[in-house]
């Protein structure tokens, strides 16, 4: 949690991007793909572009949708997905 807060306080950059919700999952996947083609980075979902932490309900469906986006990367990439907060 502390690392996430530090990332949010640092704002968006070439290596960190915020997405307000999983409603932007496709765009988050595109961003992540671009990061993988560069030096890497992190996409944080549940954060407004201004850095306000909203959070995100993560259902089984949400987890499947995220896995589907990641599975489409070619070549396959090792991507760490971390749920922060209420587990």
Structural write-up:
With 87 residues, this protein is mainly alpha-helical. It has one domain. The chain contains 3 helices and 2 strands, in the order H-E-H-E-H. A two-stranded parallel sheet has the order 1-2. Strand 1, helix 2 and strand 2 form a beta-alpha-beta unit. The radius of gyration is 12 Å and the shape is globular. The two termini are 12 Å apart. The mean pLDDT is 91.
Overall strand count: 2
Looking at how many chains there are and whether they match, the oligomeric state comes to single chain
Number of helices: 3
Rg (CA only): 12 Å
Main sheet makeup: 2 strands, parallel
Q: Which spans of ≥5 residues are poorly predicted at pLDDT below 50?
A: none
Helix/strand-derived category reads: mainly alpha
Gross morphology is: globular
- Widest sheet: strand ordering: 1-2
The portion of residues assigned to helices is 25-40%
| Beta fraction | 5-15%
Number of domains: 1
Order of helices and strands: HEHEH
Distance between the termini: 12 Å
The average pLDDT value, as a whole number, equals 91
Question: Any descriptors?
Answer:
single chain, 87 residues, mainly alpha, two-stranded parallel ribbon, 3 helices
Question: Could you give the topology of this structure?
Answer:
Elements: H1 2-10, E1 16-19, H2 25-37, E2 42-45, H3 60-71
Parallel strand pairs: 1-2
TL;DR?
The chain is mostly helical. It is 39% helix and 9% strand. It has helices at residues 2-10, 25-37, 60-71, and strands at residues 16-19, 42-45.
């Amino acid at each position: 949690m502390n690392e996430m807060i530090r990332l949010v306080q640092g704002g968006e950059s070439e290596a960190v991007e915020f997405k307000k919700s999983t409603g932007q999952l496709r765009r988050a996947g595109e961003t992540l793909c671009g990061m993988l083609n560069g030096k890497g980075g992190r996409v944080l979902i549940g954060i407004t572009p201004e850095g306000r932490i909203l959070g995100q309900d993560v259902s089984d469906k949400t987890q499947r949708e995220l896995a589907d986006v990641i599975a489409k990367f070619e070549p396959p990439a090792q991507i760490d997905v971390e749920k922060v907060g209420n587990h």
